[in-house]
Amino acid sequence: MSETTSSKVDVKEIKTQFKIFTESLNKHGKFVKTPRLEPAEEELPIDSEKREDDEKFKKRECFNIETPKDKERPFVGLGSPLHRKEKHFFRFFLDGSLKTYYLGDYILPSFSFPVLAGEIAAACVFRQDNGNLSIPANGFRRKICLLLPNKSLLPDELQRELDEISQKFGSYRLKIETQYTEERESKDWRSSLRAKGLSEMHNTEIQLASAVRENSEDGWLVIDGAIRKRAFLDLENVIGLAKSFSRLPIFVIEGGPTLDVVKLLVGLKEGERTLVFKQSTAEDDSEKEVKDNLGFWYLRLRMGEWLENPLQGVVKVEMKITENTTSPETIKVVNEISRALLAEKTVSPYPTPRWHAHIYPIYTAETYIKSNLLSQYYFRGLAL
């Protein structure tokens, strides 16, 4: 895969921008740089995908929108995998990544907070008719962000100066962007700032997904992870594919049993999917619009004695479904998606972590991103 233009970094530009931001912070307060070399946040042993899914399922109840043939066994057999030679269903595979770095603390007379910097990258792999994978010319995006608390918490003069600096950097090929949290209070600002970085990463994924396909009819797009933003629902022919997911949901099957995730999936055989579900929502749920228009189901790609627990080998698939009772047309699409995903397991990225729920094109996108991210030592050399 050749290097795209947007994967290149002008080291001098980035170092100059960080220096100007640091000078501005010190002019209006005291920026105390960290003396420690902490690892980048993504490198810590935290399953952020599951953690984000846990946040989504604070209201745990889910209901089936697909009528089961057997209420005691809410699964659907899929038959043979849908291989590329029969129908080339998935063409685009997108992944995003975020690394955050703690740079130090900023001290004001009435307020202090940590300062984080983040490197965001997203890549989209395109699969040709012969199966070859490539990164399109517009298939990679990188952002470097300075993550700060809500603007209203900063002195007015500092706000204006940071805005002016951001405008000044507009002509740079890769400018450092200032990103501010929506919340004005936090018990853990580092977690809040990282959450803002994750939100911006998802925005970058959406922008790339919109740009890389000229037409949604060019082929379906698989986004690694769950669909978390309203803008994802505006994209046609897109699914979210999660290798890791929350154990919090409770599934209330109409006329049947009530099951938790483990009880639901322990009986799911290889080549089967669950019924299609939606999450129940409250009127005051800030994500109600997304959840009301998002259907999801679980699909077992692999099973065997070498798997450690019933959840391994299972992926969670999310897709825009506006109806609350699935039509025959929707079921047909759901089954085609599931059969096409079964075919994707043919090439395994073993022994990479979570290989049992991984598909190779997404693994390729992940690998491309990792090869283009700056090392933590290099990044800190630019920022501090």
Give the gist of this structure.
This protein is α+β, with helices and mostly antiparallel strands. The chain is built from nine helices and 16 strands. It has one domain.
Would you give an account of this structure?
This protein is α+β, with helices and mostly antiparallel strands and 384 residues long. It has one domain (5-383). It is built from 9 helices and 16 strands. It has helices at 11-28, 48-56, 156-168, 189-212, 261-265, 288-292, 328-344, 360-372, 376-383, and strands spanning 30-33, 61-64, 75-77, 90-107, 112-127, 133-134, 140-148, 176-180, 220-224, 238-242, 250-252, 258-260, 272-274, 277-279, 294-300, 314-320. The strands form 3 sheets. Strands 1, 4, 5, 6, 7, 8, 9, 10, 15 and 16 form a 10-stranded mixed beta sheet that branches. A hairpin with a 4-residue loop joins strand 4 and strand 5. Helix 1 runs antiparallel to helix 3 (156-168). The radius of gyration is 22 Å and the shape is globular. Mean pLDDT is 89; it is low at 1-5.
